[in-house]
């Protein structure tokens, strides 16, 4: 199969290209090498016949923005399926980022979908995100499953990090979020990740195509970009430790996340491209390790593995953060035959040793 990977030069994209190679598929990359993610050796715009210098694949590399109609129209020619990873990621800094999230993620997806429709491509795998859920799954001892409201800044300031039951205000127990959970994006990035899913569903209905939206949980691993305001927490911790500094843990470090290693994520993408059984035309899948971890645990493990100073728990916060979100990835196991394989211990060891991307 010939697969176009948008954002194929990025952190997850590079791992996907490697996995496609391993599975015997051909790949074509379109990537803009955006300046807030890529530094150093950035190729010039246009078509490069081989991309080996900039990534693991020897397939064509098109250096262009996903919003560039002409480039995207050329990129989809002769392609059987598309993996759409190109996006502006992360929580962002403030509302000044909002236009860029909407433009890069929503408009970029629209340009791609139009080109795919015109070229008659029927299979799409979208990089979704667990951020579409907002807070994860919670239950109140008295009121059962509940959806907590966004946390108040006054609560965060006074160190009350756990969201209370919206009915009685009592403490809640966090659980595993399934794909049927209510969707409740709580920052600009999250809103665009949900909108991308909606746009892809429109495309699928109009064209008869199929889309698998893979809602990645916290992806980490070799090739993660260095510390930027848009980087995930594992990259921020790793960059601090490399400088000899302690990782700084926000809140109390007990925030729960599901850390999934990038090679497992790449396998999930290829599994979604080639499902063993036919899957519904529009389908979302959680892609998590299935293991509940905490931010404090990740910081401690990474610091110990790198022989660096232990983490400092600051009690600080970011208003757009949710408290807990961990996944049930059973649907992906059932329908795609995919399960994560890399343990946190092994994954962190490989991550600690591998170079980060400039
Ligand atoms: C992350 C990604 C998001 C992606 C999602 C699923 C970022 C910024 N977020 O969301 O793009 O869609 O995974 O793959 O890339 N924290 C610290 N210290 C720090 C920074 C953060 O303790 O220096 C804490 C935060 O308060 C938060 C947790 O780490 O509780 C996770 O933060 P982060 O990785 O940034 O965001 P997620 O919401 O998990």
Based on the model shown, name its key terms:
single chain; 358 residues; alpha/beta; eight-stranded mixed sheet; four-stranded mixed sheet; 10 helices; 33% helix; binds uridine-diphosphate-N-acetylglucosamine
Q: What does it look like?
A:
By secondary structure, this protein is α/β, with parallel strands linked by helices. It contains 10 helices and 18 strands. The chain is globular. The chain starts with a strand and ends in a 5-residue tail after the last helix. α8 crosses α10. The mean pLDDT is 93. The strands form 5 sheets. The protein has an 8-stranded mixed sheet, sandwiched between helices. The protein has a 4-stranded mixed sheet with strand order 8-7-9-18, with no helix packed on it. Strands 11-14 form a two-stranded parallel sheet. Uridine-diphosphate-N-acetylglucosamine binds at residues 89-91, 129-131, 216-219, 231-233, 236, 248-251, 255, 257, 295, 318, 321.
What is the fold's blueprint, element by element?
Layout: E1 2-6, H1 11-22, E2 26-31, E3 46-48, E4 61-63, H2 69-75, E5 81-84, H3 98-119, E6 123-129, E7 137-140, E8 144-146, H4 153-157, E9 172-177, H5 188-207, E10 210-216, E11 218-220, H6 233-242, E12 248-249, E13 256-257, E14 259-261, H7 262-273, E15 282-287, E16 293-294, H8 295-306, E17 312-313, E18 326-327, H9 330-336, H10 344-353
The structure holds uridine-diphosphate-N-acetylglucosamine (UD1).
Mean pLDDT: 93
Rg result: 20 Å
Number of helices: 10
Q: List bound small molecules.
A: uridine-diphosphate-N-acetylglucosamine
Low-confidence stretches: none
Q: SS-based structural class? A: alpha/beta
- Total DSSP E strands: 18
Q: Globular, elongated, flat, extended or rod-shaped: what is the shape?
A: globular
Strand content: 15-25%
Order of SSEs = EHEEEHEHEEEHEHEEHEEEHEEHEEHH
Oligomer category: single chain
| Helix percentage | 25-40%
Spatial ordering of strands, largest sheet? 3-4-2-1-5-6-10-15
